[in-house]
Amino acid sequence: MFTTELGDFLAKPDLGDEIFGPDTLLVRCKSTDDYLVAARALDGHLTATIFGDDDDLAANKKLIQILEKKAGRLIFNGFPTGVEVGHAMVHGGPYPSTSDSRFTSVGSLAIYRFARPVCFQGFPQAMLPAELQDGNPLGIRRLVDGKPEAVDLIRDRLDLV
Question: How far apart are alpha carbons 108 and 106 in whole angstroms?
Fold first, then answer.
């Protein structure tokens, strides 16, 4: 655990750099306005933790608004846990904690970090990747005009997936 005063924290921006591993930087502030200044000075981080009670949380909405722009996961009265591939797990955050803040670095949405949309406009069916051909020769689940294909609905009901 490390401690610093607000003035030193602001004068030395590298103190706010994210460090991976079990560490804590406690920035001593004299007022609510001071810790809002400290929060605004942060770059992107994977997590941010707030300690207090329910009344503290309700009284510090400005801090939460600042931190939600600075971190991919906000934690109340706890410590960051490990990560897992699960629909509820999001662990990204704004730059520099992730290279693309639209996507999480863990959880079921992490795959989108490796996806790049490509449009094949006006291509004949035979020249399209199999995944995009109207006949769906691979039999994959997909959306057509934003809706699941009828074949997918039938397959799901029969539990053949």
Answer: 7
Residues sharing a CB contact under 8 Å with residue 117, sequence separation 6 or more, in sequence order = none
Q: Which residue segments constitute the domains of the chain, with CATH numbers given?
A: 2-82 (3.40.309.10), 125-157 (no CATH)
The angle at the Cα of 101, spanning 96 to 104, to the nearest 5 degrees, equals 105
Question: Tell me: the pLDDT tens digits for 78-120?
Answer: 887 766 656 666 666 665 556 565 666 666 777 776 777 778 8
pTM of the predicted model, to two decimals? 0.58
Q: Hey, how many other C-beta atoms are within 10 angstroms of the C-beta on 46?
A: 19
Query: H/E element holding 54?
Result: helix 54-59
